[in-house]
Write the structure tokens for this entry.
Amino acid sequence: MIFVTVGTQFSFDRLIKAVDVWAARQHAPDVVAQIGPSDYQPLAIEVYSFIAPEKFSEYQRKAQLFISHAGTGAILAAQELGKPIIIMPRLNDLGEHRNEYQLFTAKQFLGKPGIYVAMNVEELNCLLNKKDELSGCTPISSFASKDLIDALKSFFSAKSM
């Protein structure tokens, strides 16, 4: 199963339409998407404006591949599960967001294991066409490391003196 999420605050019709068109061409039977307040009504994929947290987590666990906007929450969730994720940034220039932070986020993840960046619909289609070749990363912990916690404790202890 492919799980697509674009968050709940903004629509990302460019991404949803691209996945829907690809799924229709490929006769992809198992694509589920959380599309937020979208104006685009997909025909080939199963969509929800909002998915309750428990069901959302279930879709994440079942998915072989994530597709998402370039939001860090989705990227971290994919890494925690060791699943491959394709990210495509929303663009301010296209009215998809308030600023270009997702473009900068996507650029920071270029070449990182398990994270595949599509800067446009053509690159997204290329990645989707080779989806079975995409691999995840070694799963990361959902908790901070002991070293980080110790460093933070030390930092804040020094600041309070």
